[in-house]
Amino acid sequence: MDSAMDFWAAKAVLDWQIEMGADEAILDAPVDRYDLPQSRAPAPAPAPAPAAAASVASPPPARPPRPAVTDPVAEAQAAAEAASDLGALAAAMEAFEHCDLKAGARRFVFCDGQPGARLMIVGEAPGREEDREGRPFVGRAGQLLDRMLTAIGMGRAAEDIGRAVYITNVLPWRPPENRKPEKAETAMFLPFLQRHIALAAPELLILMGNTPCDALLGRAGITRLRGTWAEVLGIPALPMFHPAYLLRQPQAKREAWADLLAIQARLRAAT
What we know:
By secondary structure, this protein is an alpha/beta fold. The protein has eleven helices and six strands. The protein has helices at about 5-20, 70-80, 85-95, 100-105, 130-135, 140-150, 185-200, 210-215, 220-225, 245-250, 255-270; strands at about 110-115, 120-125, 165-170, 205-210, 230, 235-240. The chain has a six-stranded mixed beta sheet with strand order 1-3-2-4-6-5, with helices on both faces. β5 (about 230) and β6 form a beta hairpin.
């Protein structure tokens, strides 16, 4: 029996394959699609490549730069050194924004009396009356100070520069409720105070109370310091009781009078 497929049989098979959708020859040999394992699960995806060694790992992202920290004392030092006269120094102090006292005070208190006076007084900080008027020592304590100065022939309003007095404070802004100035506040304004003294160039200094003694001498304890001459920026300085203390402790006026006589003698000796 001849097993070779004749033309008509082959054509019938081809027609049937076309009918079934096999209308394109791709492989060299036919593939029986019905015999393929259709239910077999797909081959697993290849495992990912191992991570790169730690030595070649990507560096962590760079941290943003930290903002520069402002040093109020250094800024005050630079501003004070740049002031060429008392007017420029007052403007620099009033523009200084690092002291919170400024926000609660009414007036900027810089000085009173005569610039160029032989005697300069350094007090603590403005009180209520000083904050209202913008001048140091104008309340009850200031009135007592004026009487004390008059007793030795001196005064802030004296026309004779040889008898005149120049007055300032460690702080130019009033602390709330007249509290004692804090160390940080004093440190911020110390460069301004030192420049103030240098520009005023007095012959003698009076340090009224603990705060100016602590700021300029690095020592406190006015009952031990008063009456003993020291030196500030090359200028003789005498610690004294603050007039506000004398109002509370009238018995201390004896020591205050002795200090005033010592100041008078020193000024006369230098004439």
